[in-house]
Amino acid sequence: MIQVSSSILSADFANLERDVRSLAPAGVDLVHVDVMDGSFVPNISIGLPVVEAIKRVSPLPLDVHLMIDRPVRYVERFCKAGANLLTVHIESDAQENILAALDQIADCGAVPAVALKPTTPAEAVLPYLSRCGMVLVMTVEPGFGGQKFMSHMVPKLKTIRGYINAQKPDCLLGADGGVNLQTASACKESGADVLIAGSAYFKAASQAEFVNALKAQNI
Fold first, then answer.
1. What pLDDT score was predicted for residue 59?
2. What are 8-63's pLDDT values in tens digits?
3. Is the pLDDT of residue 219 over 60?
4. Which of 64, 94, 106, 146 is 20 to 30 Å from 117 by CA-CA measure?
5. Which pLDDT value is given to residue 115?
6. 3-state SS of the chain?
């Protein structure tokens, strides 16, 4: 079953509580929270206090995506702030530290996940797969919303789907970046279970219809 995680990076931050509360009635499954540090990616977004505030008003689980350097320093605090699923980038630190971060996330009771930038090969996920509840394939360069979907990421989705089926069948596969009604089909056909939609969701004339279409067998 397809899950939709709506990225609040494209929400109206002056009315963030309103937009967060609107997600569940539209059929969204998860609140995707992009945390950027201005170092790992060339943008700064939100931090722990905002995650804590969203948790207080959200009826949905928080899917927190850390686009930060050396996330092992902060994963426990983000879990305590309310992350139900916490994603770290495999490019953001040495392998042993990413493994330690995934273990800390699991110890906190949240779902550990890893993300891969577009230039990172699919096989780079293999050392981490056994510890993951989700693998997130970036279908744009991380750091900014509203980018165009990179169609050449489709083979990577398919390859990682194969790894998951063979080694960790209970692990989800997510696609993040440029997901809309035109690109969702390729993601789903490649094995994605979780579609992260930001600008396309918030710009939709009917957000409920948009979510229903993303979840449909055929678009």
1. 96
2. 999 999 999 999 999 999 999 999 999 999 999 989 999 999 999 999 999 999 99
3. no
4. 106
5. 98
6. CCEEEEEHHHCCHHHHHHHHHHHHHHCCCEEEEEEEECCCCCCECCCHHHHHHHHHHCCCCEEEEEECCCHHHCHHHHHHHCEEEEEEEHHHCCHHHHHHHHHHHHHCCCEEEEEECCCCCHHHHCCCHHHCCEEEEECCCCCCCCCCCCHHHHHHHHHHHHHHHHHCCCCEEEEECCCCCCCHHHHHHCCCCEEEECHHHHHCCCHHHHHHHHHCCCC
Query: How confident is the model at residue 142, as a pLDDT?
Result: 85
| C-alpha count within 13 angstroms, C-beta hemisphere, residue 211 | 20
Of the pLDDT bands very low, low, confident and very high (cuts 50, 70, 90), residue 146 is: low
Report d(CA 174, CA 125) in Å as an integer: 13
176 is catalytic: yes
For 43, the token pair is: 């943008």
Ranked by mean pLDDT, the top range of 107-111, 141-145, 214-218 is: 107-111
How far, in Å, CA of 114 to CA of 112, rounded? 7
Q: Give the integer Cα–Cα distance in Å for 186 and 188.
A: 6
* Whether 12 is catalytic: no
- Catalytic-labelled residue, pool 63, 93, 176, 193: 176
Q: Which amino acid is at 82?
A: G
In angstroms, rounded to a whole number, what is the distance separating the alpha carbons of residues 192 and 172? 8
